[in-house]
Amino acid sequence: MGPLAERLGRSRTEQRVLTAAGRRRLAPLFAAVFLQNLALWVPIEKLFMTGIGFDAAGVGVMAAVYAAVVPLFEVPSGLLADRWSRRGVLVLGSVAAAASVAIGGLSRNVPTYLVAAVFLGLFFAMQSGTVEAIVYDTILEETGASTAFEATTGRLRLVESGALVVGALAGGVIAEVVSLRATYFLTVPLLIGACLALLAFREPRLHRADGADESTSLRDQVRATYRVILQPGRLRLVIAVTVAGTLLMQSMLEFGPLWLVALAVPAFVYGPHWAGLTAALGLGGLLGARPWWTRRPAAVLLALMIVACCLILTTSRSAPVVIAAQVVLTTLVVAGGIPVLRRLHDGVPSAVRAGVASGVGTLTWVTFVPFALAIGFLSDRAGVGTAGWALVAIGVAAGILLVVVLPGAPPPPPAPPGPVAGEPAFPADRFLPDDDPAWPGHWASPPREWADARVDDDATLAEVRAAVLAMPPELRQVIVQRDVEGRSAEQVCAALGLDAADEIAALHRARGLVRERLEHYFERRNP
């Protein structure tokens, strides 16, 4: 085994957490997420809206505009991220957020502020699924496995929660010193800073290696995305529990204050209540990074606690108990959602990862709209206690799905577009025709020698890892067991149920794919 294969083997067997270099690589993304969520205008938004002519009906119209924009643009933005640039889509999202805040600050009437709501919806649509796809692929490139996804996503949730809390506190203080309109404008430089941080981030390229580029037709890209979402199998359960969990969390964020209204709590309680819910996002992120959620007893306990919290909201008339139940429920849903999110990305090829994640987000929005209408109708006609039974039903469904999904094996991703076991590793035009008089079937354009190339540095290792991860499973298994784990041909045949001819053919094709990727890499590096 050569030095490059030895280093690749060490990275697969030992490097299951992000190194310092990997964390430095993600640091600009974390900084951008913090700045994006440092929304100084949020705590004073309703007060500002009232001052420019909004009434309760106008607020409802604004929410409807926002709710329509997000699902309308989620899947297109995910497809754009897969085909063009995920970092680029996040930059566009930050630009849309800055435009939303600037237009909102300039607004002096309801129609202008509705335009700001449209741009805010665009921001959330472009964020949906894209951030997680970038994090997942970066971890794969850095470690060769997705093991560190939960811990990294947990820290990301903590950053988001911290920014929301800081923004809420700072925004209220700033609004006391300057005008409400100026508080909006002071958020714009933060979003510009987010754009700059994203431009400093080195984007993962696995989705390019997996077949997502401009050479793939848009129709094929859309078909592949929806085929993954709609395919039968375990991934459907993962998507279902993702939707159910998001319904519960969104219900707490959107309708949680209704319980306080019903219990006639003093006005000063609403601030700590909202702070508790936003803090729960970060606490859930920390808990979701723990490895025990994939053990069946922990999954069962998680499910039971979620159902218990929903039952408390239905039966309790104590404000402290209700607030505690909402905070705990939000924490548990976020914690359980992180390993579920890894299951989702584990079952999706990189070429359509952002599109699929955005599609799941769209499905959640489409489901939440009628669910929210039902909660509002039941709350108005029969009280929030009765409406809480709808949450109990969703909680029971989510609990059952969590017990099924978390302890099981992750769903295998569909084979990405590209060479399969029965196809040649190199294009046919690189060989002479079979009827060539001198060298039939031999190289017409042989691979270049790498006499002066460094083949054992970190950059080359990253190219090898990307090539292996982009292979169809039947090729990847063979090259990993032979060239990374150092097994003999007989051992690989026995482990994978192959005969000797199939094993050597798959190994030859897999090595050819690695060689072809490195050849292009060295041509770019040493033209």
Automatic annotation (TrEMBL):
<feature type="transmembrane region" description="Helical">
    <location>
        <begin position="259"/>
        <end position="286"/>
    </location>
</feature>
<feature type="transmembrane region" description="Helical">
    <location>
        <begin position="88"/>
        <end position="107"/>
    </location>
</feature>
<feature type="transmembrane region" description="Helical">
    <location>
        <begin position="56"/>
        <end position="76"/>
    </location>
</feature>
<feature type="transmembrane region" description="Helical">
    <location>
        <begin position="321"/>
        <end position="342"/>
    </location>
</feature>
<dbReference type="InterPro" id="IPR013324">
    <property type="entry name" value="RNA_pol_sigma_r3/r4-like"/>
</dbReference>
<dbReference type="Pfam" id="PF07690">
    <property type="entry name" value="MFS_1"/>
</dbReference>
<dbReference type="InterPro" id="IPR020846">
    <property type="entry name" value="MFS_dom"/>
</dbReference>
<keyword id="KW-1133">Transmembrane helix</keyword>
<keyword id="KW-0812">Transmembrane</keyword>
<feature type="transmembrane region" description="Helical">
    <location>
        <begin position="298"/>
        <end position="315"/>
    </location>
</feature>
<dbReference type="InterPro" id="IPR036259">
    <property type="entry name" value="MFS_trans_sf"/>
</dbReference>
<dbReference type="InterPro" id="IPR036388">
    <property type="entry name" value="WH-like_DNA-bd_sf"/>
</dbReference>
<feature type="transmembrane region" description="Helical">
    <location>
        <begin position="387"/>
        <end position="406"/>
    </location>
</feature>
<feature type="domain" description="Major facilitator superfamily (MFS) profile">
    <location>
        <begin position="17"/>
        <end position="410"/>
    </location>
</feature>
<feature type="transmembrane region" description="Helical">
    <location>
        <begin position="181"/>
        <end position="201"/>
    </location>
</feature>
<feature type="transmembrane region" description="Helical">
    <location>
        <begin position="26"/>
        <end position="44"/>
    </location>
</feature>
<feature type="transmembrane region" description="Helical">
    <location>
        <begin position="354"/>
        <end position="375"/>
    </location>
</feature>
<keyword id="KW-0472">Membrane</keyword>
<feature type="transmembrane region" description="Helical">
    <location>
        <begin position="113"/>
        <end position="135"/>
    </location>
</feature>
<protein>
    <recommendedName>
        <fullName>Major facilitator superfamily (MFS) profile domain-containing protein</fullName>
    </recommendedName>
</protein>
<dbReference type="InterPro" id="IPR053160">
    <property type="entry name" value="MFS_DHA3_Transporter"/>
</dbReference>
<dbReference type="InterPro" id="IPR011701">
    <property type="entry name" value="MFS"/>
</dbReference>
<feature type="transmembrane region" description="Helical">
    <location>
        <begin position="156"/>
        <end position="175"/>
    </location>
</feature>
